[in-house]
Amino acid sequence: MTRLTRLTLTTFLSAGLAAGAVAQETHPETGDTLAADQTFTYRILDNISSIDPQIVEDTDGSDVVRDLFEGLLNQDENGELVPGVATDWEVSDDKMTYTFHLRDDAKWSNGDPVTAGDFVYAWRRAADPATASPYQWFISLMSLENGDAVVAGDMAPEELGVEAIDDTTLEVRLTSPLPYFPQMVVHSTTFPSPQSVIEEHGSAWTNPANFVGNGAFVLTEMNPGESIVREKNDQYWDAENVILDKSVALIINDENVALTRYRAGELDMTDIPAGQFPRLRDEYGEEAHSFPKLCNYYYTFNLSDSGPEAFKDPKVRRALALAVDRDIIVNNVMAGGQPPAYVFTPEATAGFEAPETELASMTQSERDERARELLAEAGYGEDNPLTFDMVYNTSEAHQKVAVVLSQMWKQKLGVQAQLSNMEWKVFLEERGNQNFEMARGAWCGDYNEASSFLDLLQSDSGYNDGKYSNPEYDQLLEDALTADDTTPLYTRAEEILAEDMPVIPLYHYAGVYMIDESLKNFPVNNIQFNWYSKDLYKAAE
Amino acid sequence: MLIYIIRRLLVAIPTIALLVIAAFCMMHLAPGGPFTSERPLPPDVLANIEARYGLDQPLWKQLWDYFVNIVLHFDFGPSFVYKDRDVNDIIATGFPISLTYGSLAFLAATLVGVALGIAAAIRHNTWIDYFAVSLGIAAQALPNFIMGPILILTFTLWLGWLPGGGWNGGQWEYLIMPVIALSTSYMGSIARITRSSMLEVMNANFIRTARAKGLPQRSIIWRHAMKPTLLPVVSYLGPVFVYVLTGSVFVDLYFSTGGLGQAYVNSALTRDYAVLLGVTILYGALTVIVNLLTDLAYAWFDPKIRY
To answer: What is the Cα A318 distance to its own chain's centre?
Structure first.
């Protein structure tokens, strides 16, 4: 019996025990008295890109899609895999074929059964060039058989390595044994989509009037610039254990307005603006939350031919990385409980162990001393000062960080860094074309694995804007694709980064939120921040 | 007069076409495109998406297809960013909202502003005058991005009387703060212009004649002074009307009304070409029509003007 089947069994058992308790308006597990109004209201920044699981590309949109559709597997409050439409799975000995067993009671919101064929349809749809999905690349990332050829339009979508053996058995064939493949089917691109509805309504199938989903909630209102409302889906296979009646996203562009509306009781959850966490923590105590997120924040050197000569010397790069006092940045500038970053991969990433590097183990005064030595060895000093330009995308918080960085370098090393900011799209274009000397960068993991970060610095990565290249590093990541134990490989890769220092890691992001005390079960320990409205509930105050 | 109107409308067509061409060129000159993203799309994927939206065609062809679709099908194209929606749909949902609170703000600013200005001018140098002038200056000094936070803090957080944002189909509770925030600074300007215009008119010879004739004050103000007083006000109101509909970005962002201003600004930032062009055409057409109405209103207010 796999771990998952055991999990399923316990879930079913507790569900069976709990069924009676919901009616008495107390929570089956915690015993909390439930609030009469089970509506969860939270803030999002902007309209979402789509509610079509194969099209959606933004995180706020994915949060909505996770309520409206259910994939093969879900995550629990700690980010561990739990059954979704699939109850369990088997892997072949060569780890290239996965067989998922689907529950037979899963239904679409129009009453039709959810079958393995719905997944096949959705995966082909994601890979099909005609769909023009911005997440088409995810199919390549999943290493599905013939995936690249289908994406490129060289093969028909029907050739994709996914097949419905029968209504409840889905077979997936891979081209390489990805150790983290099961983690990837939590992503919205892999969610099923309703073929008959899409064929009937075309692109209008996402209108609330036409919408059909298989998630715990259905879409009832879509008010652009204002709100997105989803309500409990009675056809959902586990509907009796869903406590929330409604989940409402309010689109509020200004985070300070959102905070005011939270304080007025209109929201159960909202973002805390940069720098305000300590004040709100004093005022509201436990309602102000900060938890690690799977994202990093760094500056990248341009190591290509168009980059400055000085940056080609690793000593210069290490000196600049050492002289940054990260505690000042996280405690005084961001002030939201962000962990300082001494390695590229967030240390909270599953199966990752950060190496002992000089950057991480020294005190700040030792680092400053070492930085001065290294810079002098590289030939820079008072008579030959190092100067360069650094660029970031326009934002108040990024500006503060850049100013603090340039001041630290100036005071400690006598380095002159010229700051400039660019509007987001211009910034991406310039950075992508290597028209910079040093540029800000940030990344959030697509899945909870170190390679989701380390891949960015591979020689042929599309995101490697600094054009860093180290054959040993590339080989390590290549080996990790098929290794049983990837941890030492990733640790070694970070050691190489610490020696070469192609980027300066500054901090890892934290989710900084106000969460009303009546809202329970929000998965603050899920580092990917994948949350499901079906797991939440409101307790009576 | 009819010929004048027809001629003005005909001139509007090439004007708007030029506007579209200029906007189109500026848009394509700006670095980055709708599909430039943090994770650069693999070339195959990017090619698929560009083909889907016709962005693989040469620029002149894209512009030509755009015009053809508008003229033949009244189709302004799909949004590149909000993939569930097209431009017609974005305008159809956003514009009525902007129009509703914009018109109300325009009415409020005009009625209150003109009333304050006239009261101040008639009771020149009395406490009413000082009160109206102070109120006008205060209102003018409070642009909407200052009024917004003050209103929300007062009515939502402290008093708890009004919802802090949203639209909810345009219920009155949701309208009050956007209308006040948008109208105050225009109201101040209108009051100031009305007051100085009225003071000038009241000192004119024809008013002195009317007084000498023994006409009652009420009749002098309403029958003789009102029209010339409002002439400079009307020339100010024309552009203001377009502004309150188009310049309501702040209100949209701040009060989550879902109006068109937010869509417009976002489309420029995200390079959502079709939305940007569609809304530009709408605003251009609106400007042309309102300017025409203003010119026609002149003729009614000032008998010396004839077309």
So the answer is: 29
More confidently predicted of A225 and A269 = A269
Whether A7 shows a pLDDT value over 80: the answer reads no
Helices (H), A192-313: 195-201, 255-263, 277-284
Question: Which among A136, A260, A425 has the least Cβ separation from residue B32?
Answer: A425
Segment of A55-59, A243-247, A424-428, B202-206 carrying the highest mean pLDDT: A243-247
Q: Which residues pair with A26 in a beta bridge?
A: A33
How many CB pairs below 8 Å do chains A and B form together?
146
Smallest CA–CA distance, residue B68 to chain A, in Å, is 22
C-alpha A64/C-alpha A228 separation (Å) is: 9
Greatest CA span in chain B, whole angstroms? 86
What is the rounded end-to-end Cα distance, in angstroms, of chain B? 6
Q: How far is CA B224 from the centre of its chain?
A: 31
Q: What is the pLDDT of residues B227-265, one digit of tens each?
A: 889 888 988 888 888 888 765 888 888 899 988 888 888
Distance from C-alpha of A307 to C-alpha of A388, rounded to nearest angstrom? 10
Record the pTM.
Answer: 0.86
For residue A486, how many C-alpha atoms fall within 13 Å in the half-sphere facing its CB? 24
Q: How far apart are CA A168 and CA A170, in angstroms?
A: 7
Torsion of CA A343, A347, A352, A357, to 10 degrees: 40
Q: String of b and e for B24-47 (b: at least 16 CB within 10 Å)?
A: beebeeebbbbbbbebbbbebbbb
Residue A140 in contact with partner chain B when CB distance is under 8 A: yes
Quick check: A462 and B39 CB within 8 A? yes
Cα–Cα distance for residue pair A451/A186, rounded to 1 Å: 17
Q: Beta strand A217-223 with A227-232: parallel, antiparallel or unpaired?
A: antiparallel
**Diameter of chain A measured on Cα atoms:** 80
Residue pair A417/A409 in contact by the 8 Å Cβ criterion: yes
Per CB-CB distance under 8 Å, the chain A contacts of B83 are 49-50, 52, 55
Q: With the C-alpha atoms ordered B154, B158, B159, B161, is the resulting torsion angle positive or negative?
A: positive
In 3D space, the residue among A117, A121, A113, A118 whose CA is nearest the CA of residue A235 turns out to be A113
Tokens found for residue B237: 């109101």
- Range B5-13 contact pairs with CB under 8 angstroms and sequence separation of 24 or more: B5/B292, B5/B296, B8/B288, B8/B292, B8/B295, B9/B288, B9/B292, B12/B285, B12/B288, B12/B289
Which tokens is A230 given? 């989803």
The listed range with the strongest mean pLDDT (A379-383, A409-413, B272-276, B300-304) is A409-413
Q: Does A153 touch chain B (CB under 8 A)?
A: yes
Three-state secondary-structure class, residue A290: strand
The reply to whether A226 touches chain B by the CB within 8 Å rule is: yes
Q: Is the ipTM of this complex over 0.90?
A: no
A47–B157 C-beta distance less than 8 A: no
Cα B86 from chain centre: 23
DSSP A518: T
> What does DSSP assign to residue B114?
H
Say if CB A124 and CB A160 are below 8 A apart: yes
pLDDT band at A20 (very low <50, low <70, confident <90, very high): very low
Helices (H), A175-325: 181-184, 195-201, 255-263, 277-284, 314-322
